[in-house]
Amino acid sequence: MGPHPAVAAIRLAVRRVLHDVLTDHTTDHEPLVLVACSGGADSMALASALAFEARKLPVRAGGITVDHGLQDGSDTRATEVAARMTALGLTPAEAVTVTVGREGGPEAAARDARYAALDAAAERHGATAVLLGHTRDDQAETVLLGLARGSGIRSLSGMAAVSGTSGRYRRPFLQLDRQTVRKACIAQELAVWDDPHNSDPAYTRSRLRHEGLPALEKALGKGVVEALARTAQLSRDDADALDTWAADAETAVRDEAGALECAKLHGLPPAVRRRVLRRAVIAEGAPAGSLFARHIEEVDRLITGWRGQGAINLPGRVEARRQGGRLVIRQG
Fold it and tell me: pLDDT at position 250, please?
């Protein structure tokens, strides 16, 4: 008798990603793949599947849990999660403590601290890849959050299956729903921890998960999550194509000295032009995470709605101004 269908589904998803890692990174030694594990159902199911599949492949498997220090007893819980990963056969199995700042709000600050810790752990252990337990439901929530921000098609594209430096981050569960992952934990009798922040209405994603999405499904019927995840993939394909177009166009709209020519920028399709402007602003030091659609729209008006307006102040102390038919972007 084979494994429970949910267990088989998560193992197949992880097996495919591990084969991709082996194909993408050909080395003389067995690559190390880490799982980012909070102790919740999604990441515990992922840790279990990684431990199982790695034993059948030339792959070493380990795990990292991040203690954000935001709840009483979080250090004890992180130690327990590390012990669970060790019991699954993951080596190394490490708990890392971080300090969460305030920039961008509590959710963004915690995410930034977490990824910084995961990056540092991957470098420290020489890991080839870090697996993340985001599911199709998480993808749907991300698409809706992007839609609410009005940040454009890139936000609607949600989370990529492969992201980070050299494709470090891999998300095997983006095609699986949260219920399947939870069933896999129950079938394997895996101890899981439900983060109270996930049901705290003080957090935007929590309100969306427990109020917003259920309301949409009630109004529109089942299938909303699948449709949003499908929208993410279609949007990502479109955004990737437009990014490639913008990268090619950027050279053509600069003069011999490398300055951006307003007349040539004006001739580009708006979606391409705004991407060229965004690339140029980031290149001058504006942090990508703090640069929103409204910032780029203001810069775009220097090209399309020029009325002699002054300089535009952007995040990272970057300034954009129109001068002599050129768009001058520099850090002040």
Answer: 94
User: Are the C-beta atoms of 13 and 173 separated by less than 8 Å?
Assistant: yes
Select the more confidently predicted residue: 193 or 105: 193
**Amino acid in position 256:** E
Contact 64, 158 (CB under 8 A): no
Distance CA 242, CA 230 (A): 19
Quickly tell me which residue has 């009325």 as its tokens: 307
End-to-end CA distance of the chain: 67
3-class secondary structure, 183: helix
Q: How far apart are CA 59 and CA 23, in angstroms?
A: 12
pTM of the model: 0.85
206 band by pLDDT with thresholds 50, 70 and 90: confident
CB hemisphere CA count around 129 (13 angstroms): 29
For residue 41, the surrounding DSSP H or E stretch is helix 41-54
The torsion region of residue 315 among left (phi > 0), alpha (psi -120 to 50) and beta comes to beta
Residue 8 to residue 1: CA distance in whole angstroms = 12
Distance CA 325, CA 241 (A): 29
